[in-house]
Amino acid sequence: MDARFTDEQDEIRRTLRELLGKRCGPEELRAAVDTPTGHDPALWTTLAEQLGLPGLALPETYGGVGCTATELALACEETGRTLAPTPLFATAVLTAPLLLALGTDAQRAGLLPRIASGALTAALAVPGPALATALALTGHDRHGAWAGGGRAGGVQARRAEGGWQLYGQVDQVLDGHSARLLLVAAHTGGFARSRVLLFLVRGDATGLTRVRQTALDATRPQGRLQLRHVPAELLGDETVDALPALARLGDAAAACLAAEAVGAAGRVLERTVEYVGQREQFGRPVGSFQAVKHRLADAYVQVQAARSAAYYAAWAAAAEATATAAVSPSATATTGARAPARGETAGGLALAQALDALRRAAAEGIQLHGGIGFTWEHEAHLYFKRAAGDELLFGPVHRLRAHAADAAHAFEEAGP
């Protein structure tokens, strides 16, 4: 493995950091999250038109840049530094890969170019209390019990004249209140033969009600969807099982989340080091005290270790995607088969380490900023809430690690 970044990857990071540094300061961030959508449309347009960020990991055939999960993770690291208020994660990380992997030729041609241009934002809606379960980050669910299992609850899909209709409710949908396209996981076939399929729903569809939820982390807005006989279009065809596709998506999504958390942790640590070098106590900078140095050094080591893990997870996800496509793209889409992975649980482990690092760096930032750090107005709290919010959505950390240990058979007794 060559751990060095290419010139193109370095340019992506440098350009994005420079742009976000000018356009996404603390004041701009707070102004954006207080809007009904929770995003800055002007910033999103700039990222799409100047950098092609929404289509970074999409093929050039569909108007994308043609990069891999590695470049997308590096972009997420930079957006994580500023907690940039954009629909990048919901659109480019969670939804676009499923459209590319499972959609028909017509669906790809009609949707992916619009996503790549930034004109179409999208959100993945999976019923249940934890997105991590659907993405197989905290365990495997071969029957889709997280979506209601075909019983009451979740979202049910029924055939209707001219297509399908969806009925049910989904909570905690990232950007679900504002996305123009929804990709909804729903059960069909009744309880005895229930299975999970993915459906496309327009944001202005008849019978769809969307409400923005009050979330711990306002920089990652969530919506609640209520579907009452909403017309929907099946993604792909009925031979495609959504569960394996969601599980495959999980590792790449976790790698991008880990990179995003590492970017946030690095930024809040930088701000803390800068502050303790200026704040004086007993006639000398606070940062000159040995106890403070030790605390910051420990946090720095944890952040750097998490960064290495996130980079490896992104590389492993990109390598696995390439290997899987080389085995048989059609077989993968219909049966869920996958090529042998080099880093089967790398994403989940990297995410656990990155969330720990972000929580540690943000907590140190709050404490070492003194009295001002404990006020809600200080930006250190935004980073601490991001760590806590991500763990609620995609964790908890101990379950991420436990699932990785189970997948690696780490605690199984050796045979005779």
Characteristic key phrases:
416 residues, alpha+beta, Butyryl-Coa Dehydrogenase, subunit A, domain 1, Butyryl-CoA Dehydrogenase, subunit A, domain 2, Butyryl-CoA Dehydrogenase, subunit A, domain 3, 3 domains, 7-stranded mixed beta sheet, two-stranded antiparallel sheet, 13 helices, 9 strands, 51% helix, AcylCo_DH/oxidase_C, flavoprotein, FAD, Acyl-CoA dehydrogenase family protein, EC 1.-.-.-
Topology:
Elements: H1 7-23, H2 26-33, H3 41-51, H4 69-82, H5 88-102, H6 105-117, E1 122-125, H7 131-134, E2 155-160, E3 163-174, E4 181-188, E5 195-202, E6 208-212, E7 222-234, H8 242-276, E8 280-281, E9 284-285, H9 290-327, H10 329-335, H11 346-368, H12 380-394, H13 397-407
Parallel strand pairs: 1-4
Antiparallel strand pairs: 2-3, 3-7, 4-5, 5-7, 6-7, 8-9
Helix pairs in contact: 1-4, 4-8, 4-9, 5-6, 5-8, 8-9, 8-11, 8-12, 9-11, 11-12, 11-13
Task: Report on the architecture of this protein.
The protein has 13 helices and nine strands. The chain is α+β, with helices and mostly antiparallel strands. It folds into three domains: 7-120, Acyl-CoA dehydrogenase/oxidase, N-terminal domain (Butyryl-Coa Dehydrogenase, subunit A, domain 1); 124-234, Butyryl-CoA Dehydrogenase, subunit A, domain 2 (Beta Barrel); 242-407, Butyryl-CoA Dehydrogenase, subunit A, domain 3, CATH 1.20.140.10. The two termini are 36 Å apart. Mean pLDDT is 87; it is low at 328-343. InterPro entries: Acyl-CoA_Oxase/DH_mid-dom_sf, AcylCo_DH-like_C, AcylCo_DH/oxidase_C, AcylCoA_DH/ox_N, AcylCoA_DH/ox_N_sf, AcylCoA_DH/oxidase_NM_dom_sf. This is Acyl-CoA dehydrogenase family protein. Residues 6-118 form the Acyl-CoA dehydrogenase/oxidase N-terminal domain. It comes from Streptomyces massasporeus.
